Fold:
Amino acid sequence: GNSVTQMEGPVTLSEEAFLTINCTYTATGYPSLFWYVQYPGEGLQLLLKATKADDKGSNKGFEATYRKETTSFHLEKGSVQVSDSAVYFCALSSSGGSYIPTFGRGTSLIVHP
Amino acid sequence: DAGVIQSPRHEVTEMGQEVTLRCKPISGHNSLFWYRQTMMRGLELLIYFNNNVPIDDSGMPEDRFSAKMPNASFSTLKIQPSEPRDSAVYFCASSLRWGSTPTGELFFGEGSRLTVL
Structure:
């Protein structure tokens, strides 16, 4: 079956630091990969996505590259801001899972001024 | 455009009481999902509907939980009787044409925070 593994948090950084949140997956079929972000008191919202191997998704300074050979989709940002403090979820969907999204446990990011 | 609308945002009730959570999906979306989020278990899929029909309810914890979608613009999740371990944030999400493309995106509501005393 499908599964997503994320690094455990919280990840604590100073403003302008480089961010990496690791995500690896197992899936049947050819999955699409997603990063969602959840700000305090809100629902999840899509941050970026990639639908095939070697695609790079990007949004708001965040990037993630679909690496089929390592089954990974790590989230990166070159310079984080306090406003990036949130919980980040890696997710996938594939035909093998009837396209029902599978989410990781989430990684909390705390950015200090 | 209005997003997914959930009500109530907060609910505090006593053990044994009935709880009904409501969701209005985005107009035109034909798939609807109910999730539960807790610190211990993360985000759990409870049930999802395609075209108002329940497709998979294997995530519903037990018979105390039930969900309905009487039409394309409304769904309910009911817990009867409620227990303290049901305390969580319940999210509704909708999606367009889920299953016809592998690039489906979920649109989440802001959640209903349930506390059962």
Observations:
- The longest strand of chain B covers residues 42-50.
- Chain B is about 0% helix and 55% strand.
- Chain B has a mean pLDDT of 91.
